[in-house]
Amino acid sequence: MSAGKLLGIDHGIKRIGVAVCDASQLVARELTIINRKSKIEDFARLNHIAAEQNVIGIIVGLPSDLDAPPDIHTQADTVRLWVERYKEITALPIVFWDEQLTSVDALEIARQKRRKVTDPIDDLAARLILQSYLDALRDGLAVPPDQAL
Known about the structure:
α3 packs across α4. By secondary structure, the chain is of the alpha/beta class. The chain has a 5-stranded mixed β-sheet, with helices on both faces. The radius of gyration is 15 Å and the shape is globular. It has 4 helices and 5 strands; from the N terminus they run βββαβαβαα.
């Protein structure tokens, strides 16, 4: 895997949290929150951010749906479909990463940063997803984006 910045995404119904890491892929930091408009506008904004940050890959948090009955549409299904649509207009490799417990941890970070209880935490969740991926990548437990299917 070549070094380079990665974008972390926490996909939500109303907002998309965005984080980025340094080029050496050691540390993730929150970047922004995109208030959802349309897929076209959201994808254009993400592509603009990716180009601006010179990223080489995208890590998208995937909710766990292990407890869901097979005939029920889950949030994970929604994220998978969204990524399939996004892949149609980006050349960057995209990797799914488990986002389990990121919202709980993001709330704790928000409290430490003295954010208001009503402030969105999607950017912090994206940071946690990306940092978890980076840690696993260093430990050999994750596939680099350029080797993803």
